[in-house]
Structures are given as structure tokens and as C-alpha cells.
Amino acid sequence: MRIAPLVEPGPPLGPEQAERASRHLLLPGVGLTGQRRLRAARVCVVGAGGLGAPVLQYLAAAGVGTIGIVDDDVVDVSNLQRQVVHGSSDVGRPKVDSARDAVLALDPTIVVRTHDLRLTATNAPDVLADYDLVVDGSDNFPTRYVVSDAAAAAGLPVVWGSVLRFDAQVAVFWATAPGGGPTLRDLFPTPSAPDEVPSCAEAGVLGALCGQVGSVMATEVVKLVCGIGEPLLGRVLVLDALRARWSQVPLVVPKRSDERPADPAPTTVDADEVPEIRPDELAARLADPADPVVVIDVREPAEIAVAAMPGAVPVPLASVLDGSALRDWPYPGPVVVLCHVGARSRLAAQVLRSAGIDATNLAGGIVAWRSSELATR
């Protein structure tokens, strides 16, 4: 879906600006007018970490005229493996200051606004009020929901990315896009509990993967500002770095109460329509030879190595989300899906049920299973 340019063109480019942007000026759809749009654009980047670092570098290099940087953290030596906007001499400095210096080193004519704070539902509307677009490179679910909700209320598009270990996702959320668009809550209806999804500090992340994903996010910003190409609206781009495979998952926008009925679209199962089973109920089913239920474990291999359910079949969540696991699905009967405490498996079961598979979520995940007396008898 093509959209109109997000930003009106700014003043004519000066000679140095034109020379700096000469390779952009050759591009159809960008040219002088598009570059003037970029110079007039005001982009807020939330997070000056793994994703924010390459986004900031490429937005500055692209000539975005005003860049906001939101982060309340300081540079740690462990950040340097992937947060390439910072250097060894920046350890201990506020990330917003280090990132600002790196941006101005690329182009000293850019206006940089620093926000040394953590976004909350209270301060987010004021912080985002003076921007045209938001880039969400944050590393935790509470901040992601704050960004999504505040941007939706303000009518701002959000370029969103997420990385963990060797996997990544990128999407554009824009509730007020022409025809209506998705928000983060359409992808993840409810926030995960703090212990449901491991952080990069707990699970690790491939440094170079942040550069790949950040570059895609910066490209989406340029497309939205200039009105070129097809943005990632209604699609989630999924990268499996170990297999070097990009894929995309459709993100169906639910009909909102203030919208006219849209044309029929592929249906998905709501999260609250996914049935759940308790550990004792699952134990009883597994003990019944007349009930050939298959248990699917959507956790990562390292998690399974720590705590596995005997007989469970490993099917990584990413392969369910990108559809690759469904191409030759070998289990015609009912399946029970498990993860650590039940959040990722609920999402997987939602996708599986949308594909016509009789999937049930194990309430409480492997944690509840291991603590169940029946499971240990």
C-alpha cells in the first residue's frame, strides 16, 4: 500500500547539503524534493542502544533535519558489542550525550534533541508532541506499549523493531494511517510479564543483527517521510539470522468501533479464544493411550536444554510466526503448546488455530508443569 509523503518539503538545499545528499538526489521518488522532506522531518528515536544506534547513524547520514534521542541509561562496556554509536571513551556517559555527539559528528547541521528519561504514560505525550514520526528501538515491553499507545493517540507512525539472540522482527504501526493501521497491541494484545520473555542481558544478542535490523528501520523512516515504496504496514518482517532467511507475517487489523466495515480479510483467532489446559489435565491426557495429543515446545534450544518436557517436540516460535513450520505440518491431531510460563505458547497456539490446527495452550508453561505433583510422579 502506497501512502502520501509524511512531511512537506523544507527550504531549498544549500550547496553543501546537495553535495552531501548527491546519491539520494539520483533516486526516483527521493530527488531534491524528497531530500527537502528529510531535512524538514522531525524523528524521535526511543532507545540509543542496539537498534537505536544504527538507526541514528543512518538517519543522520540521510539528512533528517531534527532527531530526538530518548534514553535514561549510561554506556556500559557490555554495550559496545552492538551499540556502535558509542565508543570505549563513552563508558559511563549518558547514552543520549554519546549518541548526540556521534550524530553531530556525521552532520553538525542537524538539530539534536536529547531526552534523558524513561518514557512513561505520563510524559510520553509531551515528549512525542513535536515529532512527525517515532522509531521504537527500546528493549522492554512496558516502554514499547507506552510508545505505541502515545503515538496512536497523537496519530504518529511508529517504526518498530525487536531483536533477541539470532532473531528479529520489524513492523510499522500507525493507527491513523489511511484506511486504518495496526498498533503494537494488534500484534501483542497484552504485555508480557517480566519473566516471560528473556532480555538481551539474559539471552544474548548477535551484535551484527542489530545493524541489519536498524538499517531496515531507517529505510522505513525514509520511505514514510518521502512517500515512496510500500511501508511495513500490516506486515511483520521476520529475520532468522542463523538460516539467513527473511519472511513476513500478515498482521490483520481488527475492525475498530469507529470504523466503517472493511472488505473481508483473512481472519485470525483472538488470544482469548485460545483454550488452556492445566498441567494435571495434560498429564492425564498424556497417560491416556486413546488421546494421541502431541506437545509442542516453542522455546529456544538453550531454554529446552535447561528444562525439557520428555516427549515434547521442539518447534521454535519464530518458525510458527513466519509460517515455515506450517508448510508441512506433520501432526493432524490435537496439540498442546508450551513455553516458559505460557505467553509465547499462547501466541503460537493463536497462530496454529488460525491455520485450522487444534492447538491448546499449557497454562503456566514449563514452570507450572515442573512444579506439578502429577508431572513428577
Nutshell version of this structure?
Residues 289-374 form the Rhodanese domain. The protein has 377 residues and is of the alpha/beta class.
Structure write-up:
There is one protein chain. By secondary structure, this protein is of the alpha/beta class. The protein has two domains: 15-250, Rossmann fold (3-Layer(aba) Sandwich); 271-376, Rhodanese-like domain (Oxidized Rhodanese, domain 1, 3-Layer(aba) Sandwich). It contains 16 helices and 13 strands. Helix 4 (52-62) packs across helix 10. The termini are far apart. One of its GO terms (molecular function) is nucleotidyltransferase activity. This is Adenylyltransferase/sulfurtransferase MoeZ.
Structural class by secondary-structure content: alpha/beta
How many beta-strand elements?
13
Domain count: 2
SSE order in H/E notation?
Answer: HHHEHEHEHEHEEHHHEEEHEHEHEHEHH
- Rounded radius of gyration (Å): 22 Å
So, CATH architecture of the largest domain? 3-Layer(aba) Sandwich
Helix content: 25-40%
Main sheet record: 8 strands, mixed
Organism: Cellulomonas composti
Domain Rhodanese: 289-374
Pfam families: Rhodanese, ThiF
Protein name: Adenylyltransferase/sulfurtransferase MoeZ
